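Build the 3D complex.
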Amino acid sequence: MASLLNHSRPLVFCPGCTHERIVRALDNALGQMNINGSEVVLVSDIGCSGLFDVFFHTHAFHGLHGRALTYALGLKMARPELQVIVTMGDGGMGIGGAHFLSACRRNANITLLILNNFNFGMTGGQYSATTPVEAITSSRFLNKLEHPLDICQIADAAGAPYVMRCSGLGEDLSNNIEDAISYDGFAVMDIWGICPGRYSRKNAMRKSDILDQIAKLTPYNGVIEKNERSEYVSSYNQICSELSQPTPPLVVDKEHSPVISGKKEILILGSAGQRIVTAGELLCLAAMTGGMQATQKNDYDITVLRGPSIAEIILWPEEIGYTGITSPDVIVVLSEDGIPRRRQSFAQMAEGGLVIHNSRISVPDCQARTIAVDFAGKGVGAKDQALGALAFLASLNEGISLAMLNSALEKKFTSTHLATAQQTLAKMQLVEQPGA
Amino acid sequence: MGRTLMDGNEAIAHGAIRAGCRFFAGYPITPATSILAKMLELLPPAGGCCLQGEDEIGSIGYCLGASMAGRKAMTATSGPGLSLYSEQISFAVGSEIPLVIVNVQRLGPSTGSATKGADGDIQFMQWGNSGGLPVVVIVPTDTRDCYFLTIAAFNLAEKYRCPVFLASNKEIGLTRESVDLDSLDVPEIEERTVFTSDPEDYLPFADRENDGVPDFLPIGDRTLVRQTSSTHGQDGYITTDSKEIARQRQRLKDKLENHVGDFTYYEYLPADKAETLIITYGVTARAAKQSTLAVAAKKTSVLVLKTLWPVPEELIVATAASYKNILVVEMNLGQYVREIERLIHDKPIRFYGKMDGNLISPVEIGEVLNNG
Ligand code: SF4
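Done.
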């Protein structure tokens, strides 16, 4: 049974520190398992337990306080064959609480050894998340006001399938650690120990005290059946092996002659749920079939099912630089929601501008030509009015033609959606203009 | 050639795949979320791994672990998430972990406006982590740049073993444009230099003569690798030797600053007999270029910086030399102008910027030029 201890780096813990026993027990466990140093990565946290990686001839990853479990999962995902063992103190457990919960929920095959000695040893004996209320610490009275957390109960509740609470001074420690490492899933060991350097100077703590205190708590001896399930990394890889390749981005070739020679700025004002963003996209795609360049910006509230939805589109035969709309050539108004946010756009409209609006909505006064369209009268419902308005624009050759719009629909939609979209176009009863 | 309608965020995801990215982790945050969504669609079928972290600290931590195991890794966020990345960024800087960090900037400070753009993190990306050592920040102006510069960002992260920021903006990330990515002349894909000599001699932070970048070996192969966030010597063990410490700090600075000439991305549009040079970057560059067309009477040149950190000092000084005055335009209240003022002392430097959630327009820049 070969030792993986790094003899050029002798242990430096205070005399009597349980950490030293845990280092030796971990070494014994790895030896019993006949593991090679290159098959293991020791991920250590901050504090006295953060020194662990130095004492072993294994791969080593020593990072920031409380974050050890994050590096561990990255390593495990990238190298599932690696034996990933994390050491952290009760301090790291406290500050990295979110990572701990997440690790329990994920169940990747990682072993977590929490060296729980009820205080921050390295920084001077401050209270930690596990410090008992009655303890005397350098944090004066603070720990008297906070309930210590039970690591094992939390791990259990969060779904860890293997949880063990034991004494770092126990005779079975090597075997216990071996058992945890051998478990195919996330294994948590809450190992209680003595910190003679800080904690036990003011809080009497003997080997038997630890056992007595553990005995008073809910026992955790390893596998928790109700939490057992398949391991995260292998499940992840299994699912990924069955995924089909994603659809490549839609490529649009020039199929039609353009119907405009200059820049066209188009504003579509509507409400959430009116498919304004999709209409904007269709407008761009249609223009692209005419060899035009296009940009689209959207503006909507974070609550996606309520409030205004606005699309700003620029069409230009040349490369588009600035993507803001300053003086729109066309404003399409499909609901009142969008008007307040773009009221000034009506005043700033370009010469020869055009406003197309749902005839049941009144729009702000402006100099532009205004056309009211009775969408509902044509049997075009609220969700399809944006597409209906595009068709109307196309029938006037305002940026795109009907042929371009049809090409865009064919590219964007598959059979059923395409049929519905084409029905909307038919309901608009539009005639293709000559020259389009 | 056919074109695709694509926004900057999608282009970043496609660029990452092209660059060989095989690990992504992120946490949902507007306006960067669609990068996470796209990576989740693209990466797993490509043999990579994409995770949604429990928070931003976890997300970037996963990336650091995976990167040390040999994967090309990327994460994406916006201001509030970038704040949480800070400690892990300093880890990547000090311990030389390759990583691409996309920051789709939104209007701050703090929670700010999730759906409004700004370039408010320009100094923050460089200085917002402990220790004060250089990082690389490159800045796209449009969807095409997002694709191209993401590949460049991976190359730089791998080559120099460091975190590289891609400083996008909501106005680029969520603006769709018609682009022909296939016609782009993209950079050749680079890999980190792997140690190939006798494994017995491997030092994870070897002080190599040539470019100051230590050769890499992944955690998990036969040769044991040590990685540590503590101040370390070449062997990856904690050191207290002040000479060694000083040498390593200097190396971390020099390996980037001495090579910025090799990765100074920019665009220079000189105008005949121009007296004014606009220096700008990001989405604002598009308005600046257009503004000079609008004010034909007052000829103006434009320098668009796409590498902001380390500051491409030579380029800026040499380009500015022939102009009478400089106008710096940025979508914040004056950040990078500080660097320009630090470099140029012999001519007036004006600044124009704003933070109201709107793009700076060509008309606004034209007015500033005309009033100058
Ligand atoms: S301070 Fe406590 S935990 Fe740290 S080495 Fe000393 S006894 Fe051990």
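Chain B has two domains: 3-183, 267-370.
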